[in-house]
Specification:
Length: about 425
């Protein structure tokens, strides 16, 4: 069959790379894709928010579509495809709200007793300010809607929190996402990302991962979309897994169904492992980026078969299997990301990855210019390596970061540092 992947980042490159391995797949299209995706799929220049154009293309050329990013999902792309009678993998608009509104997600967790940080929701900045007068610091402020992984402010003092209310609700720094705001209790602990496939009723958990969200070494600097990942997380023990299965995963799927919003697609659980047990930091309604770049390369199943089972409501017949190894992904960014950075720098050295099974160079922000691959975004590449354990994978990934060269190349040097704290 022919498939279409919607999106253009490292996540979509990882999805396309997995689809290439599926014996079911003849031809892969990606809209709009990027320079790296273009080496293994046919890129189609349709933007991700052009739902009708994408559906028309899909009608003519493909049997199955996979939606990568959050924006089209929250905007209802799946509903449009279904209205055209198309087979599509991802949540409908009424379920993608799990990521699209933090207030919705928090209210759902409260109603169904899914462990998460205590919170209050505000539509009015004055009410938020008067609540903050007596709130315990630090406190976390979150713009309600999608804000590209930003929109979350951790405030140590009342003055910072007051400033934060202004930034989110009055100056609308994160756009209309800030018309409503969640104020949350600050939690401490290790973060773990757990991705899952869901068919509306059944959930299947993938191997765990950990992201590094801050721009600079030592978890300093601004929040980014993610600077690197490793999988599995050594802190995600069997005991924690059992707890989450009992109190979080199936409970979330059941809650969505009970609300008349059955969820089909990927649920990404952002968890904090606190002293009081695991709690949900956030839900995403899609693969994480760069989590997908360490989790998918370790999955033994035919990804397309699993996704079709989700769409057909028979995920209960599938068992997920992962390789007994580890993977590390280091993001190569353009210096200045996530604030301001240059674009258009030529990139060389990709051929070093050719034919090396344990390595992948996923393109996040690249383009073709006059036949040459150039940088075209803040996050440029995701260099992934697999190894027999996390330490080996990390060593190999950092070696491979030297294979590619471009001006203004920037990376964190401590991706996977937490591995050293674990008893391996
Ligand atoms: P989110 O987009 O909700 O995942 O938030 C982005 C990042 O902010 C998370 O990955 C955490 O590092 C941090 N964060 C969010 N909520 C909290 C919280 N309640 N307590 C502590 N840190 C948080
Ligand atoms: N890496 C975090 C995310 O995709 O939101």
């Amino acid at each position: 069959m022919n498939i279409l992947v919607v999106g253009s980042g490292g996540r979509e490159h990882a999805i396309v790379a997995s689809a290439v391995n599926s014996p079911k797949v003849d031809r892969i299209y990606c809209a709009p894709g990027n320079a790296g995706i273009g080496r293994i799929a046919s890129c189609v220049p349709i933007p991700v928010m052009e739902f009708e154009q994408l559906a028309e293309f899909a009608k003519e050329h493909v049997d199955f579509t996979i939606i990568g990013p959050d924006d089209p999902l929250a905007g209802g792309i799946v509903d449009v495809f279904e209205a055209h009678g198309l087979r599509v993998f991802g949540p409908r608009k009424n379920a993608a709200i799990l990521e699209g509104s933090k207030a919705f997600a928090k209210d759902l967790m409260k109603k169904y007793q899914i462990p998460t940080a205590a919170y209050e929701t505000f539509d009015d900045p004055k009410a938020a300010l008067s609540y903050l007068e007596t709130a315990k610091m630090p406190v976390v402020l979150k713009a309600d809607g999608l804000a590209l992984g930003k929109g979350v402010l951790i405030c140590d003092t009342l003055a910072q929190a007051q400033d934060g209310v202004k930034t989110i609700m009055e100056d609308k720094k994160f756009g209309s996402a800030g018309s409503r705001m969640v104020v949350e209790e600050f939690m401490t602990g290790r973060e773990v990302s757990v991705l899952s496939f869901v068919d509306g009723k059944t959930i299947r958990i993938m191997s765990s991962a950990q992201d590094h969200k801050r721009a600079e070494d030592g978890d300093q600097g601004l929040n980014t979309g993610g600077m690197g990942t490793f999988s599995p997380s050594p802190f995600y023990t069997e005991e924690i897994d059992a707890y989450c299965r009992e109190h979080i995963y199936q409970a979330t799927v059941d809650a969505m169904a009970a609300e008349g919003r059955p969820f089909t697609g990927i649920i990404f659980f952002g968890l904090m492992l606190t002293e009081d047990g695991p709690k949900v930091l956030e839900y995403n309604a899609r693969f994480g980026d760069p989590e997908a770049q360490v989790v998918l390369p370790r999955m033994k199943n035919d990804m397309i078969e699993v996704m079709e089972a989700c769409v057909d409501g028979r995920l209960d017949t599938i068992g997920l299997q992962f390789e007994d190894n580890a993977a590390v992904c280091v993001v190569l960014a353009s210096n200045g990301y996530p604030s301001s950075y240059g674009k258009g720098y030529p990139i060389t050295g990709f051929e070093a990855f050719d034919g090396k099974e344990d390595y992948a160079c996923f393109h996040a922000g690249t383009a073709l210019k006059e036949g040459k691959i150039v940088t075209n975004g803040g996050r440029v590449l995701g260099v992934t390596a697999k190894g027999k354990n996390l330490k080996e994978a990390r060593k190999k990934a950092y070696e491979a970061t030297e294979w590619v060269k471009f001006d203004n190349k920037y990376m964190r040097h401590d991706i996977g540092k937490a591995i050293d704290d674990a008893q391996l």
